[in-house]
Design brief:
The complex is a heterodimer.
Chain A lengths: L1 H22 L9 H17 L4 H24 L5 H20 L3 E3 L17 H22 L2 H11 L1 H6 L4 H27 L1 E3 L6 H15 L5 H24 L7 H22 L10
Antiparallel strand pairs in A: 1-2
Helix pairs in contact in A: 1-5, 1-8, 1-9, 1-10, 2-3, 2-4, 2-8, 3-4, 3-8, 6-8, 9-10, 9-11, 10-11
Chain B lengths: L2 E13 L5 E13 L3 E6 L5 H9 L6 E6 L2 E2 L5 H4 L3 E4 L13 H9 L16 H10 L17 H13 L5 E5 L7 H18 L3 E4 L3 H6 L3 E6 L2 E6 L1 H6 L2 H13 L4
Parallel strand pairs in B: 3-8, 3-9, 6-7, 7-8
Antiparallel strand pairs in B: 1-2, 1-4, 4-5, 9-10
The chains are: A mainly alpha, B alpha/beta.
Protein name (chain A): Putative ABC transport system permease protein
Keywords (chain A): Cell membrane, Membrane, Transmembrane, Transmembrane helix
GO cellular component, one term (chain A): plasma membrane
Chain lengths: ~290, ~260
């Protein structure tokens, strides 16, 4: 069970990283995630069922997610539609796209290969752990490389202070589009990984994923303060694993799994309120130093 | 001297809630020559900030033209004009990226108006240079190269903003009451630094100020704005004759004049 939760945490961490690149760096919430995640799942599963190699299927999922992000980005920057609404519009539209891709609301991977098969000589769940670690290393190193390029610095500055960024000639609209494209690509990749883990893709698979992604972010931030960008990305991974362990704990305590979403939401709500609770109760910090 | 910036019949109107046109800039003509250091005075709502925003491209004119070094830039976006124009804001928070360090901010400024590629940012190569520049302003900024600018004092942030704005010689420097948010002592220091930087780099500069003393002491030209127009435009000699009392009288007149 423990290894299963860790494996889940690693796979869901990919989603957390994807959300981080917009929510924390560009400083706006992107609701496209709830559409690009099941889109990635649908594209990957459909591709595998049609005989494509799981790795290639994941590349396709990544590209599909990038497409979704591009549309949100264009609506937001060129169409001047508020970013939350842009995300909701794309998320809503993607529902039909997913149905079109799968030609049905639910598609199973039963008896089809999965990316985890490469490591099937490992004990149960360890294949997930290995794949999760490999994908995370790849995604995090690429992001870190990007963040420390000239373009990446302009990207960070856009989220940090848009007025200033523009006054130094940074094309902030372009930065936002780039961010939304890659963020949703990564989120779709997470969808592809989770779908292969679950053995199916579902048109409604995106509901509530933002909460899961944000929970990993927030837990990571509550536990580790004042860290570098690289450490921050790692803290998202740790937060994601911690979140899965918390959920496991909740289930172990005998709570009915039918109502799992309210536990998810409650865990996130509590984590979000921790800074306020600390102030209110004048508790010292148990972990990390006070901001 | 060569003309650097020319505004011709610059007009900006916005519609307010009751659909009435509100004219903020009213057929304004302004020519700035290379090397001018112009101080800009004017009451609230005179159109000073709108004038700046029209020059930088933050907001576009309703009618009229903006010409920069002989090239018409009326419809250019702010990002494109940033190659030639830099700006220091009134609010110390506006000029820097708070989560990025002093050195990172300076590096961003170094690339003003240049293409930013997916290539390593090469911060280390610039460190000594940044240290030297920060040392030159004498408020200890060089010790904070790796501090996020959000942790700096207002004065330090504003002097950093000024450094950033002048790091790559801009054709035109716009200062928008950049000392107004600071305490008198810090404000005075920053103003002296500003004057020094402009002198050393022979920059062309427009400076909005609410401090009449500064408007008199600094610069070689003074303009006074009122109701979206230029009410008074004094050259170096005329400005030299002007006294603080003259300015006070001028602004008192404005206050009692009807329609404000």
């Amino acid at each position: 069970m423990l290894i299963s939760a860790i494996a889940q945490g690693l796979l869901w961490a990919v989603l957390g990283i994807g959300i981080f690149t917009t929510y924390r760096i560009l400083n706006f919430p992107d609701l496209t995630a709830e559409g690009s995640f099941p889109l990635g799942a649908a594209v990957a599963v459909t591709a595998i069922v049609n005989g494509l190699h799981p790795l290639l299927a994941m590349v396709l999922a990544f590209l599909a997610g990038m497409g979704a992000g591009l549309i949100t980005g264009l609506l937001y920057t060129k169409g001047k539609v508020p970013v939350i609404l842009s995300g909701i519009l794309v998320m809503t539209g993607l529902h039909s796209v997913i149905l079109y891709v799968m030609q049905r609301p639910n598609l199973s991977l039963l008896n089809f290969p999965r990316v985890y098969d490469v490591f099937d000589f490992l004990p149960a769940y360890f294949d997930r752990v290995v794949v999760g670690v490999i994908v995370l290393i790849a995604v995090i190193s690429l992001l870190l490389f990007f963040f420390y390029t000239s373009l990446g610095q302009a990207y960070i500055a856009t989220g940090d202070n848009e007025t200033m960024a523009r006054s130094f000639g940074i094309k902030t609209d372009r930065m936002k589009i780039i961010g939304l494209i890659f963020s949703n690509g990564i989120i779709a990749l997470a969808g592809a990984l989770i779908a292969q883990n679950n053995g199916y893709a579902d048109v409604n698979g995106g509901a509530g994923v933002i909460v899961i992604g944000l929970a990993s972010l927030i837990i990571g931030e509550v536990v580790f303060k004042d860290v570098t960008l690289g450490e921050r990305l790692l803290s998202v991974v740790i937060g994601s694993i911690a979140y899965q362990l918390l959920l496991l704990g909740v289930i172990r305590l005998g709570f009915d799994t039918t109502y799992i979403r309210i536990y998810s939401a409650s865990i996130l709500a509590i984590c979000l309120m921790i800074p306020q609770l600390r102030k209110g109760l004048r508790l010292g910090t148990l972990i990390g130093k006070e901001a | 001297m060569d003309t650097l910036l020319k505004l011709h019949q610059a007009t900006k109107t916005i519609q307010n809630e009751s659909d009435l046109d509100n004219t903020i800039l009213d057929h304004l003509d302004l020519t700035i020559r290379k090397g001018d250091f112009v101080t800009v005075l004017g009451g609230n709502g005179a159109g000073k900030s709108t004038l700046f925003n029209s020059i930088t491209g933050t907001s576009l004119l309703t009618s009229g033209t903006v010409t920069l070094s002989g090239q018409e830039v009326t419809n250019w976006q702010e990002e494109k004009r940033a190659k030639y124009i830099s700006r220091v804001f009134q609010d110390p928070k506006m000029g820097t990226a708070p989560r990025m360090t002093v050195a990172e901010n300076l590096l961003l400024a170094l690339k003003r108006g240049k293409k930013r590629y997916i290539l390593p940012r090469k911060l280390k190569e610039q460190r000594t240079r940044f240290e030297k520049i920060c040392e030159s302003i004498g408020n200890g900024l060089e010790k904070h190269l790796d501090t996020p600018t959000g942790h700096l004092s207002g004065g330090q942030r504003q002097s950093l903003s000024l450094l950033m704005a002048t790091l790559t010689q801009p054709d035109l420097l716009l200062l928008d009451e950049h000392t107004a948010a600071l305490d008198p002592k810090t404000s005075k220091k920053l103003m002296a630094l500003t004057d020094q930087v402009i002198e050393e780099n022979q920059l062309t500069c427009l400076m909005i100020t609410h401090r009449m003393e500064d408007a008199l002491v600094y610069g070689n030209r003074l303009i006074v704005m009122e109701n979206g127009k230029i009410k008074l435009d004094l050259n170096k000699e005329e400005k030299a004759k002007l006294t603080l009392e003259d300015l006070f009288v001028l602004f008192e007149e404005e206050q009692v004049s009807p329609g404000i």
